[in-house]
Structure formats: structure tokens, C-alpha cells
Amino acid sequence: MPLFNPQSLNPGVPRREVFAWAMYDFANSGYTTVVLTAVFNAYFVNVVAGNARWATLAWTLALSLSYLLGMLTMPALGAYADLHARKKLLMGLVTVGCVVATAALALVGPGDLALAVAAIVVSNVCFAAGVTLNSAFLPELARPEALGKVSGWGWSLGYIGGLLSLALGLGYVLWAQGQGLPATHYVPVTMLITATLFALAVIPTFTTLRERAEPVGHGTVGSVLRESTQRLRHTLANIGEFRDFGWLTLCGLLYQGGLSVVIALAAIYAQQVMNFETAQTMMLILTVNVTAAIGAFLFGYVQDAIGHKPALALTIAGWIAMVLIAGLTSGVAWFWFAANIAGLCMGSSQSAGRAMVGVFAPEHRRAEFYSLWNVALWLSAVIGPLTYGLVTWITDNNHRLAILVTGLYFVAGLLVLAKVDIERGRRAARRDAG
Questions:
Q1: Calculated CA dihedral for residues 169, 170, 176, 182, nearest 10 degrees
Q2: Phi, psi of 34, rounded to the nearest 5 degrees
Q3: CB within 8 A of 274, min separation 6: which ones?
Q4: Above 60 in pLDDT, residue 66?
Q5: Cα dihedral sign, 253-130-382-364
Q6: Which H or E run contains 191?
């Protein structure tokens, strides 16, 4: 079972190109792992916002703003990328934006709320746009029956990238703490490490990945964007033709609402509830990334063996178990157990969703459909963390209740998934392509 098996790829797609495509996941995972999950979120609450009662809510509001901006801009850009075959060009522009804004986080100190929010908003909008555009290359590279495993290859390599970025940052944090240096010194350095690794690791993607799509639109940027918007409105107005994609999108909105809480607030929960120090939190996230890499890689094969829908249902059930353990138990060992369940489910659930979109997306509208999918994910990243932040604000920082409340999104997502019919959705995509 060699990695990047040629039999899983479309004709003419070399293994090195799939590796280069997956390297984008490797490169950008350091951003979510270090900035959003392990380091900067807790630094924002404890140092930038001074651990104020509203600090967690402020962090979730900043993330919500970034995803709202993405929702307003990315669908039209995705349709534009389809019409002009410019996924790679747009991906390059937003990658530069994310790297620069991540580096700007190194300038943030106590009380620098405006700078912190601005840099987080810009970096996260650019990050999410890059993920969307890179995902749209997946059906060009993988055979339809191998979308799950190829998507899993990307996610697993991504977690290895997150591991590397976090390990480098943890090494520096441990050295700095040994020298008696404060968080205001070592957290900015971890931001620079993350930005630098992102910039270097993404080079293979842009030197090797090919844009196979052919342009199908003409005119000025303004006219194409108007045409793209009209096309998007037509898709939404006729969503009944793609009802299974619609149900999948609603399912993604719900279960990713809970998942986004884990990504955005894991370090805050660890420090506020379990009293972890920065180094302990980074070690926890590092361990979770190992299980996430294993889960994403192996579950891709499970997904293609048992089917996309049962695989996604299994991972959502795992998320429900994780929330119950984390919210109802108090021992450190139980918390580590719950965190590793989250790791196993995180990559596999995200990979499964990405692969299912590839099944339901008509060949000539992949960037558009992936943009719609990611709009749902961005909306989930608004409502999930915002729900958590509001609960902590209302209940005077009751983080256990907040994690249990947001766990209801996983339950709702599992119920909606039952309405998805894979074969019916595949037939709809073929009719539109024909």
C-alpha cells in the first residue's frame, strides 16, 4: 500500500504532483496548530486582553469577523477561479497574505487588541481562502473512487506539518522559559517560526501543481465577478437539483460548528479548566497532532472501503464521545484521552467532508461548490466559537458548560447526515456535467 499509489490518481497525474498538492496542507497546518489552537489564542486571552471576563468572547468575535468576511468574498472568487482557471494564482495571493499577517502577530503585546484582531482577521481570511482553492484541485488529481484516501493523504501530511511547526515552537518556548523569559518574548517568536515554515514548505506546491482546468469565461474582472455572482445565485436558487450537496452542506455547518470550538479554544480550555501552562498545552496539542495524522491517513482508506457517509457518521459519533468525556470528567488523564479522541476524529471528519464534496461537485464547477462548502464551514466557525464565548460570558467563565452546549452541534449534524444519499448526489453531478 504505497503512499500516493498511482492507481488512485487520474491519468497523467504523477505522484510528485499529488505530494506537492498535499504539501499545501503540510505548510498551512502550522497556522491552525500554533496560532489558532495551541499558542496565540491563550496568549490573546491571558496577555493581550489581560484575562478579562470578556476576553474569550473577544477572541471568538475576532474569529467570527474573519469568517464572515470570508463568507462575503470567497464564493464569488471561487466561481471566478472556475471561469478563468485561476485557482493557483488566487491561492498564491492569499498564501502571501496569510504568511505576512501571521508574522505581524509577532508585534502584538499586552493591550494591543486592535493590532491582534486585525492580524488575526487578515491571516484567517487568507488561510481559509487558501484551503478552499487547494481543495478544489482534489478531483483533478484523484480518481472518483479514491477521493477519500487521497484527501486523507493531504490531511495526514498536514498534521505532520503542524507537528513540525509546533515542535519547533515548543523547543523555543522551553528554552526561553529556562532562561526566565516571559510569554511576551517567546510567543512572538513562535509566530515568526510559524510564518517562516509556512512560506518555505509551500514552495513545492507552487512549483509543481498544475492548473488543469480550462478558462470558460471572458471579460473584465468586474463583469466576470458579476457573472460569477449570477451563476452562484442560480446554483442556490436551484439547490433542489443538488439536494444531497445541500444536506451535506447543512451537516457540515453543524458538525464543524463543534469542531471549530476545539480548534479555536482548545488551549484556552486547557489553561482555564485544567490549569495547564503554555508548554504543557503545546505538548498536548503536539500529541493530538500525532493521533490526528494517523487518523486522517488510515481513515481515508476506511472511508473508501465502507463509504463516505458511514465514515463521516462514525467520526461525528466520536466527536460526541469526546465532548461528553471532556465536559463531564475532571481528571487530567481523562482530558488527555478526550483530546486524543478529538485528534483521531479531526482529520478524518474534515477529510471525509472534503471528499464528499468532490463526489457531489460537477466537473466544471468544482471551485464554486467547494466555495459553497467552505462558506458553510466559515459560518460554522462563526456560530460554534461564538456560542462557546457567549456561554462563558453569561456564566462567568463556565467552560465545562460551554463545551457541552457546543457539543449539541455534533448531535444535530449526525441527524442531518441521515438525509444524504450518495448515489443520488453523484447522479445529479453527472447530469449537470453532461
A1: 90
A2: -90, -45
A3: 332, 335
A4: yes
A5: negative
A6: helix 183-201
Question: Using CA atoms, how far apart are residues 262 and 66, in angstroms rounded to an integer?
Answer: 17
Under 8 Å between Cβ of 235 and 371: no
Which run of H or E residues covers position 171? helix 147-178
**Assessment of whether the complete model's pTM goes beyond 0.85:** no
Beta bridge partners of 9: 142
**Within 13 Å, how many C-alpha atoms sit on residue 148's CB side?**
21
Quote the cell numbers at residue 357: 464534496
Cell of 235: 446554483
Q: What is the CA radius of gyration of the chain?
A: 20
From the number of C-beta atoms within 10 Å of its C-beta (0-12, 13-18, 19+), residue 182 rates as exposed
Extract the C-alpha cell encoding 315.
467520526
Residue corresponding to grid cell 487530567: 332
**pLDDT confidence of 114, banded at 50, 70, 90?**
very high
**Measured distance CA(362)–CA(261) in Å, rounded:** 31
Nearest alpha carbon to residue 354 among 311, 317, 318 = 311
User: Cα–Cα distances in Å, from 129 out to 71, 118, 213, 240?
Assistant: 10, 17, 19, 26
Domains of the chain and CATH, by start: 14-210+231-433 (1.20.1250.20)
pLDDT category of residue 391 using cuts at 50, 70 and 90: very high
Do the beta carbons of residue 347 and residue 293 sit within 8 Å? yes
Instruction: Report how far residue 392's alpha carbon sits from residue 71's, in angstroms, rounded to the nearest whole number.
Output: 26
